Known about the structure:
- This protein is α+β, with helices and mostly antiparallel strands.
- It has 2 domains: 200 residues, no CATH class; 191 residues, no CATH class.
- Helices cover 57% and strands 9% of the residues.
- It has 20 helices and 11 strands.
- The strands form 4 sheets. The protein has a 4-stranded antiparallel sheet. A 3-stranded mixed sheet has the order 4-8-7, with helices on one face.
- A hairpin with a 2-residue loop joins strand 2 and strand 3.
Amino acid sequence: MSDDDDEPGRRLREQNKPVPTGGLKRLWRTGRSAAQLAGTMLGRRDGDVNIAGVEQLAERLGELKGVGMKVGQILSFIDPSLPPEIRRALGVLQRSAPATANGVVGELLEQAFGARAETLLSTMERRPFSVASIGQVHRAQLDGRRVVVKVRHPGIEQAIAADFSAARGGLGLANTLLFGMATGAKDMVEETRATLLSECDFALEAAHQRAFRTWLAGEPGIVVPEVLDAWSSSAVLTTVEERGQTLEDFVANASSDERDAAGQALFRVMVGGFHELGLLYADPHPGNFAFRSGGQVVVYDFGCVRRFERRHTHAFSQMVLSLREGRTAALLRAARDFGFGIEGPEQEATFERFACSFFAPMLVRGPSRISPDGAVETSQMLRDKRALAKLRLPPQLVFLLRLRFGLYAVLATLGSTADWGALEAAWAARASER
């Protein structure tokens, strides 16, 4: 929820284009854009990058919204080795896409609230200040309070369904989204499809946001905006406005203590929330956070939240504790309980390498900073498809991977220091005792 008014973002937001929903049209446009973006990323190693070309690709992905925009968002922050100019060019996708026209927004509010929709419309800013892959956000006032109104893009569910219909044919788009690990794993594609489609249900998002707000009520360093139930529906989500700085601005001005506090707050939300609530906040791109003095963090957008069964959170917590304590047999037992297909010594050794890479920052004893290369090294491990295919990676791992990659990248940008392993081990131990 940025106030950025950069030219690429403004140009995208003001296009007022509807979401393209046709399966063949989306397949062609998304596939072409993804292929060109991948080619640009590879080409940067061999020579100068055409920044204007990257900006055009970002604009094209923004027009597609849905999965295409998600891919661009992930690429914009997941690889810390990207040159700053590329990160900035793709970073527009964290906050901007073509907006839904004002007349259509008004119709959606009237469908949700009937005649009383005029109460919102009369104070709502016509221009959205943020346009994302699923919806757009407008400022308004209710009873003297500043609020934000998130409105779902019409047709976005059909667009996502079309994207994944295409992905089942060649899995190319899913492989981009899942860092090259979806080949031959249709259950992972289905896991991703179901979770992204659930983002379109704003009533479910409101429930997730209330759950996190209640759980974090005693945490002064974390702000979860209040949901206004009377002004929310499956297609509209209204919350009290909570402002803050962007990640980039915060890092430029914050003290080391403030950056440490902010990183630990994010770690609490995302890693602690999984162990203690069984809810995984799975969309950690920087546009979903704002930062305040003292290291306080405002967390937005609880749409991409994945609920885990108790048996899975318990098994994962046991994996964390067993790995840190060097109990290999217990680690492998917990991994099998979680859903990994591990058979024989060779696969056991492969899983141990995977676990050490996945949990690498958690294995450091004492305070440390997350390495900017951590996400890159882990993604390289995941590209060993032959070895990992033998493990039969469980589909519920997909968004845990996305969370870890994204969180490590944000923590590396913040430069936060903490005893990350001790923090997670404490949450895992409490979860294991329940």
